[in-house]
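I would like you to sit down with the pair of lines that follows and say whether C-alpha cells and residues agree.
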Amino acid sequence: MPVFIIKNENLWKLCLLHFKRRTGKGLRYGAFSNDVITRLKWMEKVMYPILKNAVESLQRIDLKSMIAQALHMGDEVHNRNRAGTSLFFRTIAPAVIRTCENKEDAAKVLEFINGNDHFFSEPLNAGI
C-alpha cells in the first residue's frame, strides 16, 4: 500500500502515513469486498503516482503551518479535518493539474480528496 513519507527537517524525523480512504467500508476495518479491493488498487495504480508527481513538483509542503491554520479554522486535526483537507487540496490541486497528463485521472484524484474530509488527518501531523 502506498504511503506518505513525512519528514520533519528540523528533527530529522520520518513518519509513514497510509492514504486515508473515505469513511465506510475499508480493509483496515475488516471489509474485503470487491469494491474495497478495487478502490485500493485504484489508489495504488492511479492516485499514488499522480500525488507522488505533484508533491515532488512542489518539493515541500509546510504541514506545520497548514495544521496551525486548520486549528484556527475549527479543525482539531483528528476527527474534524475539513479545513485541513481543504488547505491540502488548495496546495496540491494546481500541482496535480500541472503534472498529470491524463486530465480524467487528475479530476478523479482531486474529486477523491475533495469528497473525503478525513484525507488530512492526525497521522499527518505525527511527523511534525
About this structure: The longest strand covers residues 3-8. The two ends are 22 Å apart (CA to CA). Strands lie at 3-8, 13-18. The mean pLDDT is 82.
